[in-house]
Amino acid sequence: MSEKQTHSRRGALLTAAGVTLGAGIAATAATTAPAAAAPAAAPAAGADRKPGQVQVAVLLYDGFTALDAVGPYEALCRVPGVQVTTVAVKAGLVRTDTGELGIAAAKSLRQVRRPDVVVVPGGGERGTTASMTDERILEWIRGAHRHTTWTTSICTGSLILGAAGLLRGLPATTYWASRPYLKEVGAIYTPGRFVETGKIITAAGVSAGIDMGLHLAARLSDDRIGRAMELALEYDPEPPFGTGSPEKADEQTRTLALKILADSAT
Fold it and tell me: Are residues 68 and 95 in contact, defined by beta-carbon separation less than 8 angstroms?
């Protein structure tokens, strides 16, 4: 990564938030014992991708957060030479954390064994904790990771990567209220909109997936394409309140944000 890219990462976050997403994630993270990586069966030639294209697989699971998946999807789906597909345990409609929005998984995990890039979105407490103990998902992540060029996550998706055993001893980030749980899956919390370590990239909460997606667009092509994709998305945020990180928000706002999330979850 160039010096310019490194310094373009949003400023370091100051301290871990004094609030948590819920006891469920802590209990799941503390009791999850990652299994050894399982060999991934090779797909039939040409069965799961277009010839000559980089394949990006965006994992969907019941209770994922919509923008965690759609943000990186939009940043990558028009990059020349890149094919983005959505995958789930079973192909078909998958509901987000609110239960109101459904997105179709184009393929099952069994159909996409060796993607070049894995994208694991975060989700509400229910969706994240369930995925952290779903061996079908964890086995797929481990098997795919053996062959990926990049393995990535957004928001609490990093806890799912950690539950699969991929973050032991590695710097990583996650949603602000879930930072304390990273240590439970063996990761080292590191401030940043996204954190790149080897071939693993973890992004902070929700909207940070767009930042990570644009960075990945450049890594899969070049900076010229990355700049063009940023403009194509007209990604030039000017947030109206300046409370987009816990360090910039007061305690009342932090508490209200978590209540809104909890009240909207199914």
Answer: no
Q: How many angstroms separate the Cα of 180 from the Cα of each of 30, 148, 187?
A: 11, 28, 10
User: Which residue out of 59, 155, 182, 210 is catalytically annotated?
Assistant: 155
Residue in the block written with tokens 């020349």? 80
* Known active-site residue 155: yes
Query: pTM of the predicted model, to two decimals?
Result: 0.84
| Distance of alpha carbon 212 from alpha carbon 219, whole angstroms | 10
- The answer to whether the CB of 130 falls within 8 A of the CB of 100 is no
Asked whether the beta carbons of 115 and 56 are under 8 A apart, the reply is yes
Give the pLDDT of the chain (266 residues) as one tens digit per residue: 444 444 333 332 222 333 334 555 555 555 544 444 443 444 443 456 678 899 999 999 999 999 999 999 999 999 999 999 999 999 999 999 999 999 999 999 999 999 999 999 999 999 999 999 999 999 999 999 999 999 999 999 999 999 999 999 999 999 999 999 999 999 999 999 999 999 999 999 999 999 999 999 999 999 999 999 999 999 999 999 999 999 999 999 999 999 999 999 98
